[in-house]
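CORE FACILITY INTAKE
Project code: CF-77B
Contact: R.S. (postdoc)
Sample description: multi-component assembly, two entities in total
Requested service: structural model of the whole complex
Turnaround: standard
Below are the sequence entries exactly as provided by the requester. Do not edit them.
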Amino acid sequence: MEDVVTHEEDWKVCFAELGPGLVLFARQFVRQLPDAEDIVQEAFVKFWRKQHSIENRGLLYATVRSVALDLLRRDSRRARREAAASAEMEQTTEPQFDFDDGAQRELAAAIDLLPVEQREVLVMKIWNELTFAEIGEALEISQNTAASRYRYALASLKKNFVVHE
Amino acid sequence: MNDFSELEAELKKLRPRPASPDLAARIEIGLAQEAAGRGTATAGVLPKPRRFRPNWIALGLGLAAAATFLVLARLNVDRPSKSAGLALLTPAPITPAAKEVDSLVPSAMTQVVYSTRDEGLHFAEGADQPMRRLRSRKQETMQWKNPQTGASLRVSYPTEEVTLVPVSGQ
């Protein structure tokens, strides 16, 4: 990834690389894919407009998180609906991952059971490859706290999911 | 962390769903609008193009004020307001022979008589009958206009006129 992208077409290269991870991260706040894409759209435009370095991924994810939380605050009914959907794990929600087999489906279901604080750290670490320092910046927590949440998430998954050989 | 390496490998095998193709297009539109300085995209909906919405109240008030101004301006030209000393208004016809000032053409002349005073009978020198002397004070205004450019010139000055009217003995 280039350091600072200035060419107007370069955002497409960045978005092609980061887009799926950003949408996955946004879906930790809103369960429906269209809502998550709306969040990513607004956050990406906001981030790009301010000409931040794309290397500053902590800030990029912080922007996505901020837009998502603003959206939920603006629409309290939506927030309640999302909370209910998250609690009930409704089956109609479009899956966040493409599955190769049933084991992966079980793993994805186990991820959905994690608390949102652990899920967002897990998503940033596994599928977006952020460091704990970057995760800490995005979530405004220390990197130790980020690492701790990550370990708790893995421990919970390990308890609920048996790795298939 | 080594305890979780196997689990981490399994997690990395999960592939997030790709973003829908139209998301990139929506971002492209949003960035283009940002570049054009037309505001920011909002979550959920792309910003709608601005539409002209007339403020009918302001427009109505503006038109009313303009109409009032035109009516008052016309009244001032056609019918000068009466003052306490106004006695007579005598608009003078524009004569075709009026001399042009550069490209300005005489367009109007007004004569306002403020007062007329009867100073009584007087015998003029060499006259065999008395004459009544009337003194009138007036304000004359002449106006020229350039029909091509619309420029106008107006000159206003006070005058005093003494008229001797023969008095018959009948």
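Facility notes:
- Confidence is low (pLDDT under 50) at residues 39-51 of chain B.
- Chain B has three helices and five strands.
Invoice: internal transfer
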